[in-house]
Amino acid sequence: MAGNEVQVLSLQLEKVADKVTTLFDRDDTFYSQIEKRPVEVISGRDMRIPLEIRPGGSFGYVNLDGGDLGRGDAITFDKAVINTVTMRHAIEITTKSIWTTDNSRKAVLDAFKTNMSRGMAEFRRNVDSQCMTDGTAVVGTITSVTTAAGVDTYTLSTDGYRARLMRFGQRLNVFSSSLLVCRTAGGMANETSVTMLDLTNNTIQVTPAVAGAVAGDVLVSSGVQTTPPVGLLGVKYHNNAASTGTWLGFDRALNPEIRANRVNGNGSSLTLALPRLAINKIGDRLGIDQNSKLQAWTHPAQKNAYEEIGFNVTRIDKSDSDNGLNLYFGDNMRLAGAPVKTSFSWDRTRIDFLDTSLWGRAELKPADFYKNPDSSQRVWEIRGGSGGVATAWVFYIICSFNLYCSNPAGSSYIDNLAVPAGY
């Protein structure tokens, strides 16, 4: 009987491609912009942001034939106050993972060095997600829940973020829609973890299942279990026209000067009138010269909606030369004069007109590895259940900062826009 392939299998050489393909994004589009802004280094005490909030003087007419000139008034100054929030990114790896990949004869990548070098990029991606939020660390809203074999499956199609702000392996807390009940309270040990992330179908699976989780509940980042939760003060916190709640110590109901400007899309598709109105609302508040630095931040879905409008009013003239066909617009788009900036992490239903020169960071500690201040040790051993050393190591990237906007009236947004089909 002839020898077959199974008999020589042990002699065959295994070929492993020397390029490792990454199957997910590490975008940090908005955070990388804000990171370039000047940073204010602060202590553990609140940073004060002085504001000229109301004009002074008392204007009127007067009778110069013995009339009363009246009394005057002065400019009103006030202050916004902000402190930092601390975020961390933990990376843990076993000794065997390190030893089995520590040179090119064993593996195409060194697992330890790769985790060290790419950890910061992943950390930045998560911080960028926090920049999208409203200060509550909410990264998703549950549309429906199914539970099977101790695993919850959440559909996330209620808001414009869907599942985009989450990551595989991320630990989460589940809160009621009011943010007054934490269903995973009791410490980090009670948090649930993302064990499947399907961005195409806007679903995640989490393990263990969360008792009492229902449609309308929200998903909050790890480490935040206070009610209501408090996280990084992101775009939706500062670019907010609400007349309830607070902004950096100001009562929004009593201080309309600190509210941003809003245009309600009312669930309809983008039209040309809406961006112009959004920008003119800023001018109405601050004057005619305040809009030159605005950028229109949005999801590519709304960029596509704008492009569709352009298709309806564009004529293409074919020249005699053999030109290549390109019926799409380039990246040099402007909305009512504001350059369009896109991020796949942006709310699909929203366009934010932001002047990044009004934004900054209050920083207690820049992003870095968590270190022993005496020895600069940054890789830490894990302890086993016996109290002895476990064959695993952990290291942390940590930072403490917050975002502020010195003038919300200089920002505007369009929300409740219809999302084009397919997005």
Structural commentary:
- By secondary structure, this protein is an alpha+beta fold.
- 15% of the residues lie in helices and 29% in strands.
- The protein has six helices and 22 strands.
- β20 (380-383) and β21 (389-405) form a beta hairpin.
- It is globular and about 125 Å long.
- The N and C termini lie far apart (60 Å).
List the topology elements:
Blueprint: H1 29-35, E1 39-41, E2 47-54, E3 76-82, E4 85-94, H2 95-99, H3 111-131, E5 138-141, E6 144-148, E7 151-155, E8 171-175, E9 192-198, E10 203-207, E11 218-221, H4 235-238, E12 246-247, E13 250-251, E14 261-264, H5 273-286, E15 295-298, H6 300-311, E16 334-335, E17 338-342, E18 351-354, E19 359-369, E20 380-383, E21 389-405, E22 412-415
Parallel strand pairs: 1-19, 14-22, 15-17
Antiparallel strand pairs: 2-3, 4-21, 5-11, 6-7, 7-10, 8-9, 8-11, 9-10, 12-13, 15-18, 16-17, 18-22, 19-21, 20-21
Helix pairs in contact: 1-3
Task: Describe the structure concisely for a colleague.
With 423 residues, the chain is of the alpha+beta class. Helices cover 15% and strands 29% of the residues. It has helices at residues 29-35, 95-99, 111-131, 235-238, 273-286, 300-311, and strands at 39-41, 47-54, 76-82, 85-94, 138-141, 144-148, 151-155, 171-175, 192-198, 203-207, 218-221, 246-247, 250-251, 261-264, 295-298, 334-335, 338-342, 351-354, 359-369, 380-383, 389-405, 412-415.
